[in-house]
Design a protein that fits this description.
By secondary structure, the chain is α+β, with helices and mostly antiparallel strands. It is built from ten helices and 25 strands. The protein binds zinc ion. The site of zinc ion has 4 residues, from helix 5 and helix 6.
């Protein structure tokens, strides 16, 4: 009897160790979802490339699913069960996306992306197949990974975004579908995608199960943060790890050098001033201080600031990289002026239109609002309306407009103007009327000041010439202040 127990024990141990050593065998009964492959764009080149490179889609999908699950999980029992995998080749925008519910994976891959990748980048069949497979692995990670709880919205550089996108690319990297040549210093662990993936890959050299543990950490850490996850898995703060990783990638790195520029250094109240970080040596942390600005501080790399009050204001930028820190203070850097004319609205993004589309080549309505008096607008009509619509329907109080005469033929100059404003392009209010306008020179600028009580996003000029059947003008410039 005793002997039998020993024999059975040895047998059980052998089976146990056999299974332990041959982990692959644990997955032989892996439950694949049913596959529903719909090609919505059969006639396209992208679809043809896909079918040529992937003669057996089901086997590619199954191998990707198994690959992803083996990277994200250690035991089959941990894996969220997916019963259906819907894959669509679609003529759309972007690269690919994944949705679905707890048991269904709903993925599309953009045929235009395949065509563009194959042709524009002059890629080989092998490289294109690697790309397609890599995208599917990235997308499948989204289907099988856990979502971090309380980690903010899915917005750029949030903990949530960088967790899910970093993990998806880390899976793709581990599966061999991102080339190591893409690893470069700089960025931030919250950037997501490859930047975060290579950081995860490096952390996996300290704990081979890092991706598995990171995915599991989203189940237990609420709200999930990188710092809590790295402390739990590696016992170190994410900042310390990031600095060590940066030093590993870039062993000859140096202290950063702070610098910045801005969209305007002379501006008016409520105009948006965009600051651009020009620092070198890959900073990953920015702290701006804006004297008199709203907001007065920012941690964005390129923040937007408005100023409520006229004056001269200092701007300070402090930066950190893996090797050190630096700061720069620019005194009286932004001058907020009391220029009553405001900013040049016709310099901003807009949609312009004209009543007629008979202009000769190079003399269309866009030339009227290009703030370049060496070009002109011309129509073969004695009168016409011309319309300027501020992008995003932003409203402006118009303070001044300037008309610039064209290069020749004074009889084609506008003699009368009716200027109207609107906020929907349907209901118009007259802002200004002028009769008997006379330019005395070519390329001459005439200013017309306004005291405008209403803000508009649509401006329409109705112009009538002096004589003949052609109307022309070099430029219309609009000046105003934004309605905030
Ligand atoms: Zn993604």
């Amino acid at each position: 009897m005793k002997r039998l127990i020993i024999v059975i024990s040895i047998l059980l141990f052998s089976v146990f160790f056999y299974l332990k050593l041959n982990k692959i065998d644990d997955w032989v009964d892996f439950l694949y979802p049913n596959i529903e492959f719909v090609d919505e764009d059969k006639v396209s080149e992208g679809s043809q490339i896909f079918h040529q490179l992937v003669p057996n889609p089901d086997s590619l999908f199954n191998s990707c699913i198994l690959n992803v699950c083996k990277i994200l999980y250690q035991e089959q029992s941990e894996i969220p069960v997916k019963k259906l995998f819907k894959f669509n080749l679609r003529n759309t925008q972007g690269v690919a996306a994944t949705g679905g519910d707890s048991t269904t994976v709903d993925m599309f891959l953009n045929t235009n992306y395949i065509t563009g990748f194959y042709n524009n980048h002059d890629k080989s069949d092998e490289e294109t197949l690697l790309e397609i497979t890599g995208i599917i692995i990235h997308e499948l990670t989204h289907a099988y990974q856990h979502s971090p709880k309380g980690a903010g919205g899915y917005v750029n550089r949030s903990e949530h975004f960088s967790c899910v996108e970093g993990m998806a690319d880390a899976t793709r990297l581990k599966a061999g579908y991102i080339s190591p040549k893409f690893r470069k210093p700089g960025g931030h662990w919250n950037d997501g995608y490859k930047t975060t993936a290579f950081f995860i890959d490096w952390m996996s050299t300290q704990d081979a199960d890092f991706i598995y543990k990171m995915n599991q950490s989203t189940l237990t850490i609420t709200p999930w943060t990188w710092d809590k996850a790295t402390n739990q898995i590696l016992g170190k703060s994410v900042l310390d790890l990031w600095i060590a990783y940066q030093k590993f990638v870039n062993p000859n790195g140096t202290d950063p050098v702070a610098n910045f520029t801005s969209s305007d250094t002379i501006s008016v109240t409520y105009n948006k001033v965009v600051f651009t970080d020009e620092s070198t040596e890959e900073p990953f942390d920015w702290k701006w201080t804006f004297e008199g600005g709203i907001p007065s501080t920012s941690n964005e790399r390129n923040p937007t600031v408005v100023y409520k009050t006229e004056g001269k204001y200092s701007v300070k930028l402090e930066i950190v990289n893996a090797f050190g820190l630096d700061s720069i203070l620019k005194s009286d850097y932004v001058v907020i002026d009391k220029n009553p004319a405001g900013i040049l609205i016709s310099d901003l993004e807009s949609i312009v239109m004209s009543q007629y589309s008979d202009s000769p080549k190079g003399e269309d309505v866009s030339k009227l609002f290009d703030n370049n008096s060496s070009t002109k607008y011309l129509t073969f009509n004695n009168s016409s309306w011309l319309q300027f619509v501020c992008k995003s329907n932003k409203k402006y109080f118009l303070n001044k407009y300037t008309l610039v005469s064209a290069n020749d033929s004074p009889q084609r100059d506008p003699k009368s103007i009716v200027l109207k404003g609107s906020n929907n392009g349907k209901n118009w209010i007259i802002i200004d009327k002028k009769e008997n306008i006379a330019f005395t020179n070519r390329h001459q600028a005439l200013d017309f000041k306004l005291s405008n009580k209403n803000a508009f996003s649509y401006f329409r000029f109705e112009l009538t010439n002096h004589s003949g059947d052609m109307l022309q003008l070099a430029d219309i410039q609009l000046f105003g202040v934004p309605n905030v």
